[in-house]
Amino acid sequence: MARGRLRIHLGAAPGVGKTYAMLQEGRRLCEQGADVVIGLVEPHGRRLTAALAEGLETIPRHTLVHRGTAFTELDLDAVLARHPQVALVDELAHTNVPGSRNAKRWQDVEELLDAGIDVVTTLNIQHLESLNDVVRQITGVVQHETLPDEVARRADEIELVDLLPETLRRRLVHGDVYPPDRVEGALTHYSRLGNLTALRELALLWLADRVEEGLQRYRAEHGITAPWETRERIMVGLTGGPEGETLIRRAARITARTPGSELLALHVVPGDGLTLPAPGALAGQRALVESLGGSYHQTTGEDIPEALLRFAEAENVTQIVLGASRRGRFSLLLRAGVGRRTIHGSGPIDVHIVTHEQAAGAASPRLPRPPRGTGPARLWSATAGAAVLLPLLTLVLTAVRDRVGLPGALMSYLLAVVVAALVGGTYPALATAVAAGLLADFYFTAPLHSLKVTRPVDIVALAVFLTAGWLVGAAAGAAARRTRQALRATSEARALSRLAVAIARGQDLPALLEQVRENFALTSLSLLQREPGHTAEPRWYVVASTGERPPERPYEGDLEAPIDDDLTLAARGHGLGGDDQRILAACAAQIGIAHTQGRLTRHAAETDTLAAAEHTRASLLLTASHDLRAPLRAAEEALVRLRPTSDGETRGIATARSAVRRATQLLTDLDDLSRLHAGALDLYLRPVDLDEALTAALDDLGTGGHTLVLRLPEQPPYVLADAVLLTRVLTALAADALRHSPPGAPPTLTAEARPGHLTIRITDGTDPDTESDGSRVDARADSLPLRLSRDLGEAMGGTLDHTTTGGAFSVTFTLPTAAHRIAPSPAGQ
């Protein structure tokens, strides 16, 4: 079955009309003959939206009960069973109620798409995971419901539902978005004009990037390499030299003259693919580029012009800015400079050559630098150079044969061997030495023009020459290998340190992945995480990605660097050698650390927010409890002064006094709970006799015909507890059991001594054979007396759990026993 198509109506803020646009699309498709149903629509009390939904078939919602409250969610099974052509599902980033099949609504939508059902949905820009921190900085609001960017990027169509911020604020004022009691708060906080403008810009930029991705994908699929000037992209090539700042500022001026253009800076790492020849200079130039609104990139390549043009074609660059060559005229005669070769292969891309103070002219010709290593290119270059140099040198030496003789010829040939060794290493030097020895024997030893050697001194001279040539070649090759290893180690350390610095600076995962991708010249890179609970057939989702067509599964990439069992790095691109794969694995480990740090940071931010909210709630409760004590005290005193005239009034006054006392006790419990959580409740742990604590608890229950069945051992052990708090806990648990026990069925308190602890179980008098009311049990388990008792018990080192047997509710309170039965003194010392 073909996968369904996903269409997203994207908005910058609530109220721009996403749901309305989704319903309009559903009506349009329905009029064209498509089978359209409403899976879930949230009109949020907006009359026009609700009216537009009328007439479309609606799948009834699924009801779930969570913590005693009923919620409605998308009935996924019903929609799958109905199997329409198109399903309208609102709020893609919504978090489902616990107990649903999937944790997120976008996972429900994935199942609909897998079943071949087209889905039209809505999404606000602030719910995208990559923009979550940006939205928090703009609005000051933490969005707890987020959507992985990859889910939105996989959509077949994304339509922006746009509205001017001023128009949206007018809709708020007219009550078209929120109820009247929420309008003022929205206008002065989240929906301020500046906030809405910034969110709108975020939505436009994010959608523009998706359009750009689609364009690049189309060009790649159709093999289009020529740049399309949909917008100007100016790229400046950086070498790390002192002319870099001049080139960057020149390119920035070109960019500023063209509205909508983009500035890119590229440094091509030669040879080993990771070496940074001037890290300090490059760091400063990178900072300059980013301060001017551009982006910095790195790539690798043996041939710099080819690497520049390859990157320019991949990024659809329209203009390239390069510096004039610093090489002298003599060097340029031997080989064309980077600028000339780039112009030769640029095609429709404009190339600007910018002069600077370090350009050629003042510099004198100099010898080429020693090579950093050998390879096939240098091997063939040395061989070709020797094939040209030896005949020319022989031609010159034969002309002055009578003056130089064999020693002079061998010294001249030794120079050629040294040059071959410097360029190509051991084997080209040895081959050059053998060829030079044969030429010297043929042209400079008697008999001439023969390989036969008659004089012993000539034999010794040729042998010494060959030995010297071999030693020079071996030394040069070993030096080249050591130099290459040293540069490799240095470049690896620099690459890892750059990544570590980027992580320390808090760069996001896409930027870190882009840095790794550019270092290794990969096409695309993805950080993939396994979804929990799918061990037989793992399901992966993209945490972050960069490049063209990033892999969405580990097996879709050409390379993989596992981080742990649930996290891996997958890449598309050319194969890497063993050393590069080792460094990629190290980079993957650092990316994994950055991902973990980001998760911990977000969790810490959420925890801080929840802690602040909890602190505010506790402060309000404490203030309210203090304010309510005086009215309750006055009410109780007024009830005491009343003189009843009948039995009915007597019972009524007694009931009212009991209710007032219970309300006072609840305020005391709230106060104690707040003090306990704030660490302000003093504890004095000492051996306590259970009999004395129970006697005090029964006294606190007061008169009124309370019946409590006690089942205690003959000599219960002393428990290690705070006597006052233990009495509070026993009183609260007993009162709760009495309150929920039916008439004539008293609760039971059973104490049982076990090694190291004492277990106290209080069971209400409800018949165990009756059917249990789940919502009532949950409400009772979350009640204030039970929560306070649990927290006080844990503060004293004990535990408190609840169980149900049919309709009977039991609370088990466990405390550690004291090592010795030591009776406390009357003064409590």
UniProtKB/TrEMBL annotation:
Membrane topology per record: Multi-pass membrane protein
Compartments, record wording: Cell membrane; Membrane
Pfam families on file: DUF4118 (PF13493), KdpD (PF02702), Usp (PF00582)
GO MF annotations, alphabetized: ATP binding; phosphorelay sensor kinase activity
Domain Histidine kinase: 623-819
CDD domains: HisKA
Broad class of where this protein is predominantly found: membrane
Reactions accelerated catalytically: ATP + protein L-histidine = ADP + protein N-phospho-L-histidine
PROSITE patterns: HIS_KIN (PS50109)
Transmembrane segments: 379-400, 412-439, 459-480
CC annotations in GO: cytoplasm; plasma membrane
EC number: 2.7.13.3
Record carries keyword ATP-binding: yes
Cited Gene3D superfamilies: 1.10.287.130, Backbone structure of the membrane domain of e. Coli histidine kinase receptor kdpd, Histidine kinase-like ATPase, C-terminal domain, HUPs, P-loop containing nucleotide triphosphate hydrolases
Entry keyword Transmembrane helix: yes
Keyword field: ATP-binding, Kinase, Membrane, Nucleotide-binding, Phosphoprotein, Transferase, Transmembrane, Transmembrane helix, Two-component regulatory system
PANTHER family from the UniProt entry: SENSOR PROTEIN KDPD
Name of the protein in its database record: histidine kinase
Species this protein is from: Streptomyces malaysiensis subsp. samsunensis
